[in-house]
Amino acid sequence: MKRILLILSALLISVVIFSGCNCNQEELGLSLYVSQLRSDVFEGQSQNYTLHAEYGYTENPYLADGKIGNKEYSLKFRLIGKQTDQATYVIVFEHDGKTFEKAFSLSPNRHALTCEMQIDGFNLKEFTVSIGTYDQKENLTLKSTLPKDVLDYKGALKALEKNQAKLLENYRNSDGVFTAEIYARVLVKESKAYWYIGIASDNGSIKALLIDAQNGNVLAIRDVF
What we know:
alpha+beta; 13-stranded mixed beta sheet; 3 helices; 46% strand; elongated
């Protein structure tokens, strides 16, 4: 009798844990499948420099294979209008008691001077950096360009699940499990925020959607190969 009670207790605990996991997965929804995220964008200008920045994460290794790898969070900077200069430009700033410093390098893909720093838990909407050459720098304040009351990526994906349920069924297997990976990138144009959502299949094709970041409406859909 005692052994039976122990077995029943173990089964009950397993059911509770399993149910909790399922509830958590249902709550997270499609956000579980995001392999690349740009959650915020920043702009700033000083007397001699114009700087853009973005924060988010990318899976490592970065592969469009329909699976999610380890997430690496980073703050990426882009220095505007200095790509033809011969000088070496450096950025320095502090966050959470740590000092970060890095030199810019020319990105052939973006035709701009860029640098990237791995930082976890960055949630500032405004921050000041020191930028310039090794010998002479000046302070520059970066501010988030996201308007107030915009959806975060989880909210955008929930809106997508509601508005495009039929489309998303194409990416679920016979058990209802989502089998693709998602790229979610926020962008701001003329003070208006949008979410770019790319749904990548393991065959390399991407379904690209543009979503209004305030109401979640899908504005455009197209295929990318």
